[in-house]
Amino acid sequence: MSATISRAQHRLARDRAHYLCEYCQTAEVLSGLKNNVDHIIAKSRGGSNDLDNLCAACSFCNGCKHAKVTGIDPETGQAVGLFHPRQQTWHEHFRWLGDGTIILGLTACGRATVEALCFNEPLRVAARSLWVQTGRHPPK
Questions:
Q1: Pairing of strands 79-81, 94-97
Q2: Element (H or E) spanning 71, and its range?
Q3: Would you say 55 and 85 are in contact if contact means Cβ atoms under 8 Å apart?
Q4: pLDDT by residue (tens digit) across 110-129?
Q5: DSSP characters for 89-116?
Q6: C-alpha angle 101/102/106, rounded to 5°?
Q7: Domain edges within the chain
Q8: Which of 15, 75, 76, 117 is buried deepest, with most CB atoms within 10 A?
Q9: How far apart are CA 80 and CA 135, in angstroms?
Q10: pTM metric for this prediction
Q11: Are 80 and 73 in contact (CB under 8 A)?
Q12: How far apart are CA 103 and CA 11, in angstroms?
């Protein structure tokens, strides 16, 4: 937990997200790790500790995102803003392919976020495959 985010904010952010990563939708109970609380706009880029700038993020997404706020849309090659969980709706930018192991970006923002946060890295896809077999993934 970041020293700049209070325990109450940490709990509220995770609870608000129903203990899912707000980027890739990984459930804490499946990963076995509590989600981090991410500054959507990093403090180094002027972001605040306000709850509207905080989201629950799994360790993988949090580690890939760092302070990024933009990514490259692989379809157009253009720089676009990454998915913002407080301002955008997940299902408008992403959908699960097939059995729920691959995340497809539906928009420029979604495609750039899939790439920037390595949503479909082979180890992550393999883990999702196991979770799908249990009937607990993808989240409803």
A1: unpaired
A2: strand 70-72
A3: yes
A4: 999 999 999 999 999 999 99
A5: -HHHHEEEETTTTEEEE-SHHHHHHHHH
A6: 140
A7: 7-133
A8: 117
A9: 34
A10: 0.95
A11: yes
A12: 27
